[in-house]
Amino acid sequence: MGIFGSVIDVRPLFPGERCALLELLRDLSPQDWARPTVCPGWDVHDIAGHVLNDYLRRISGSRDKHAGARFAEGETLPRYLARVNGEFVQATRQISPELIVELLEHLGPQLDAVWAARELEAPADLDVSWAATDVASPAWLDIAREYTEFWVHQQQIRDAVARPGATEPELMAPVLNVFARALPQSLSGHDRPEGTVAELEVLGTAGGRWGAAWQEGRWRLAAPVPEPQARVTMDQDTFWRLATRGITVEQARDRSQPSGDPELTAAMTTLLAVIA
């Protein structure tokens, strides 16, 4: 199956996810736009502004080949992203909610066209470091990572205003499937005999089962087996929140059922599918 697993083509899902987001945003009151979110220091308006930044950044970079903001001397990628994201969010505080919605609606189809033009198995414009740090990512994984980003930010807004939604399997299942691609990276550093398999089972209508096998000196995505050496089971809400640090590792472990090799199950419950 390879390091990253089989190809996931999420490109048809962007319009539906965006439609759900825009419908939500249009229905928010001024008080809703000011509600705090799980992102420290950011309210609903800030997260919507950050999504707008993502649209602009990917159109500028992937379509127009614009290099964007430069790294400061000695700046790591997480620090760089925190800085430039924060700078843009600060600027968007001058933009009305109505205009943010209009810009998202206008730019969304343009971003869809960028994705549609890409060869899925060509090299990614941006590598997905949480899936592997030593192997170049394919374009399909880069695009899928962006889909998960938009979906998660929509969920953060929904949590803040207490309006659940966009969790139907056709929108949510691909997010969980993409996050599971972080499984080999979460297990790195835990060498095991050839053929050792660790399995993650996510319960719920959008859930599934994913395996990682130690093969040829590294962990790789693999099909689940009847009797893995390690297994962790958790529900779908716990999984996506763990993967994006919407809950702590300790909270995720409290909500999970591990069995087998304790070092592997502990590593699996540190799974992270964002840059941090």
From TrEMBL:
Parts of the chain that traverse the membrane: none
Source organism of this protein record: Sinosporangium siamense
MF terms (GO), sorted A to Z: metal ion binding
InterPro entries from the UniProt entry: DinB/YfiT-like, Maleyloyr_isom, MDMPI_metal-binding
UniProt domain Mycothiol-dependent maleylpyruvate isomerase metal-binding: residue ranges: 19-157
Name of the protein described by the UniProt record: Mycothiol-dependent maleylpyruvate isomerase metal-binding domain-containing protein
Residues forming coiled coils: none
